[in-house]
Amino acid sequence: MSVAAIGAVVIGEAEEALVVVFLFAVGEVLETVAAGRARAGIEALIKLIPRTARVEREGKIIEVEAEILEVGDIAIVRPGDRLPSDGEVVEGSSEVDESPVTGESIPVFKSEGSEVFAGSINANGELRIRISHKAADNTIARIIHLVEEAQESKAPTARFIDRFSRWYTPAAMLVAGLIIVVPPLIMGGDWMTWAYRGLATLLIACPCALVISTPTAIASGLAAGARQGLLIKGGAALETLGKIKTVAFDKTGTLTRGRPQVTDVIALLGDENSVLAKAAAVEANTSHPLGKAIVEAATGRGIELPVSFGGANAVPGKAVTARLKSGFVSVGSPIFAAEKSVLSLEVTARINSLEQEGKTVVVVIANKVAEGLIAIRDELREDAKAAVQALKDLGITTLMLTGDNRRTAAAIARQVGVEAEAELLPDAKLARISEIGKTAPIAMVGDGINDAPALAAASVGIAMGGGTDVALETADAALLKDRVSGVPQLISLSKATLGNIWQNIALALGLKAVFLVTTLTGATSLWMAILADTGATVLVTLNALRLLSFSTSSKH
């Protein structure tokens, strides 16, 4: 623009030079205002945090600035108030509207022990919340930080256009120079006329619209996702999601609720309570959902647990063993029990029967003897089947990878409508993801904790972590509303963003091509040329901002 304006003055078109500078300045202002809307979409999240909070200190309830809340403070949240920070409910129960944070439209019931997020709205009952994060570390603050980082990182298309522009700009100046020089020298054209047309060509060739075509779309896509509980950590992940051909799901906590319950306790020796007590003692300090279910079942029956000496030792994907007063006790899979040769044909038949009902069976082995069976079932998420169908409608292959037995996996797979690969240890899951990823992009969906290696190996790792630290940090994308339906929504958003990028590129190059022709024929003035360039830039920005209104609710 500067070269063209100076050139216009040199050839005696000072008035047009002023118009060029003025229109360029107007265009810059319009671009800044339009681009600010994408940033505003994220910055609006900050306003979800109330300025003050009611806390209990020294037996009194006082009002303090929300930003000075400390971990461990007890905040009192009245009906209709927003939660001042992340925390755990220690008293009271209520429906909580988490839609401003997670995009979950249905209020979620919260009671003692429930996790709650800053910015959520307490609907109908007073809650006492133990603060778990300071203001700078709560879920909303982390989301804003991660999205801002993501917007600063360039997507592959943006990097390509940047490289292209480094060659494009000098080439445009060379072409403009040739337009000025060649016609007068070869065809005897008027120098002033062709100098004017060359300067107009230079203005039209300005790469501004092309350069911003991708980053504005990416920024808008990331902001739109964050506002709906779909957190994507970078333009590269957003682009790759739209190219995914296969989605692999973990079973527990992903396609299922992640809250398994004990359904059957079968004593092979002794009684049911004895079997459950030993199993719970072994699993007492476990983080695995099945182990927690066993401990909860024992606690629910009021069973006193035997003392475990020296902690538990895990055989990954197979069993957990601990030394109790009565000797060594293992809680393991039927495969582990078969390897130890402790199963009779009759017991194996009972295991098969339970597994065909979609239950997971563990064998309690004490002193190398199978003393009992415990069957556990984890119910499917209510949206799992619809989410898988939505992925199929997008032309995507679905797959379930699980360490569970083949019969249980097959029962779950039939209900959901996915292919299943069962009895996979963590390293086998990792290898399978890597194998599929060699032929086409694959996404892995897991809980962000037990599936960290597979999530990292996938083209895009998607964590269903409900906003936890691990989920936000482990994967390339996280579903804050903790619903499987978020997976097809992520992919739909990515496809919409990719489509928007190509629309922007076509718009930018198309307008330039049209005005290049009119310039060479003498029909375009300098002010029209800069108007075309500025107009293309503004149109590209406005088109990208359409993504801010992208809604997943009408799609899946």
Structural domain tally: 4
Distance N to C terminus: 46 Å
The largest β sheet comes out as:
7 strands, mixed
Multimeric state of these chains?
A: single chain
- Average residue-wise pLDDT: 82
**How many β-strand stretches?**
22
What share of the residues lie within helices? 40-55%
Estimated radius of gyration = 31 Å
Structural class: alpha+beta
Shape: elongated
Beta content comes to: 15-25%
Q: How is the largest sheet built, in terms of strand order?
A: 10-22-21-20-11-18-19
Low-confidence parts: none
Tally the helices.
Answer: 20
Catalytic activity: Zn(2+)(in) + ATP + H2O = Zn(2+)(out) + ADP + phosphate + H(+)
Subcellular location: Cell membrane; Membrane
EC number: 7.2.2.12
Family: Belongs to the cation transport ATPase (P-type) (TC 3.A.3) family. Type IB subfamily.
What would your notes on this structure say?
Belongs to the cation transport ATPase (P-type) (TC 3.A.3) family. Type IB subfamily. The chain has 4 domains: about 1-40 and about 145-220 and about 495-550, no CATH class; about 55-135, Distorted Sandwich (Calcium-transporting ATPase, cytoplasmic transduction domain A); about 225-255 and about 380-490, HAD superfamily/HAD-like (Rossmann fold), CATH 3.40.50.1000; about 260-375, Calcium-transporting ATPase, cytoplasmic domain N (3-Layer(aba) Sandwich), CATH 3.40.1110. The mean pLDDT is about 80. Helices cover about 50% and strands about 20% of the residues. It is built from 20 helices and 22 strands. It has about 550 residues and is an alpha+beta fold. The radius of gyration is 31 Å and the shape is elongated. It starts with a helix and ends in an 11-residue tail after the last helix. The longest helix is centred in the C-terminal third of the chain and has 35 residues, at about 485-520. The strands form 4 sheets. The chain has a 7-stranded mixed beta sheet, with helices on both faces. A 6-stranded antiparallel beta sheet has the order 2-1-3-9-4-7, with no helix packed on it. It has a 6-stranded antiparallel beta sheet with strand order 12-17-16-15-14-13.
